[in-house]
Design brief:
The protein has about 130 residues and is α+β, with helices and mostly antiparallel strands. It folds into two domains: about 80 residues, Arc Repressor Mutant, subunit A (Orthogonal Bundle), CATH 1.10.10; about 40 residues. It is about 50% helix and about 15% strand. Helix 1 crosses helix 2. The radius of gyration is 17 Å and the shape is elongated.
Length: about 130
């Protein structure tokens, strides 16, 4: 199965430009775990706790698919631990939040540079000089 690609929604801001609410909450929870990762159940419970305040909820399967997608994108990594019911993945971020945002910016700029090399150089030059 190939990588799932992200859509960059230019009408949104921040991480909402690429992620849904539950995905942002999942990443924020993992970034907040100092010195350790979390299993999908723990992430799911904490995400739903936050979503409940907005009158929403998300399935555990959606959280698991998202976490595994982030592994495929090399944004998260995991170790397998044995426990009740068999093996469980413990997910940890490869990047902190700032590092992820920089990685995302590099991915977008790299793709634009590949597809529109001259236009991207010109746009970056103009942005650096505060020009439209």
């Amino acid at each position: 199965m190939g990588k799932k690609y992200w859509t960059f929604k230019t009408f949104q801001s921040g991480l909402s430009a690429i992620f849904q609410d539950y995905q942002i909450l999942s990443m924020e929870y993992l970034w907040g775990k100092k010195g350790g990762g979390a299993g999908s159940g723990e992430v799911w419970r904490n995400v739903n706790k936050s979503l409940k305040e907005k009158g929403k909820k998300i399935s555990r399967a959606s959280v698991i698919f998202f976490l595994n997608d982030m592994v495929d994108h090399e944004i998260l990594e995991y170790v397998e631990r044995t426990g009740k019911g068999g093996y469980h993945r413990i997910y940890t971020p490869v990047f902190n939040e700032m590092g992820f945002k920089e990685h995302l910016a590099k991915m977008i700029i790299s793709k634009l540079s590949q597809d529109f090399p001259e236009e991207t150089k010109t746009a970056i030059w103009k942005l650096q000089r505060g020009r439209p």
